[in-house]
């Protein structure tokens, strides 16, 4: 499929900061942005709405996905994340959504974030970034983003439950048979444990611009 602009793949585990980076990167480069994880969360949510175990065949929900499904406010909840991991393990679901992602990037190029953009969806992406952080760092970020209070009496219990869920999601994403999450051989890895969002953006922009200039030269 011919592309009208560069494709930037931003992969990594949950709560590593890849979504924040991808949005800012797209804005800085003047490219469209797609959070591909929301596609799978929306499919998982549709399966849950239908009373179906998301681990059961969910291709029909992927095929019926609408733009409105992507705007739901409940796609960031833990049950949607777990459901997303289950439907994402199904080759038929992934096949149904692959073309959606490729069509999105075909006209103008795009910045896409997910877990297999640089390995399965766009193995020929112009730039591949892999954003990661330790489970403890990612858990604290997700806790604070959800309005958690570190001083609350049950804060440690909540944090432990969230970390357990993140680790389970990591394991499911990395061990699935269909397009498992892994670092592409030619990806640039950025560890965000000690970096704020602006520092991550600066490093990603530096690498991306160097790679795009080299490709044109």
Structure description:
Helix content is about 55%, strand content about 10%. It contains nine helices and five strands. Helix 7 crosses helix 8. The mean pLDDT is about 90.
Q: Kindly state the number of beta strands.
A: 5
Portion in strands: 5-15%
Morphology call: globular
Global structural class: alpha/beta
Average pLDDT: 92
Main sheet summary: 5 strands, parallel
Helix content range: 40-55%
Count of helical segments? Answer: 9
Q: Concise description?
A:
This protein has nine helices and five strands.
What keywords describe this structure?
five-stranded parallel beta sheet; 9 helices; 217 residues; alpha/beta; 53% helix
Map the helices and strands.
Blueprint: E1 7-11, H1 18-29, E2 33-35, H2 36-49, H3 59-63, H4 78-88, H5 91-106, E3 110-114, H6 117-121, E4 127-132, H7 135-145, H8 155-175, E5 188-191, H9 197-216
Parallel strand pairs: 1-3, 1-4, 2-3, 4-5
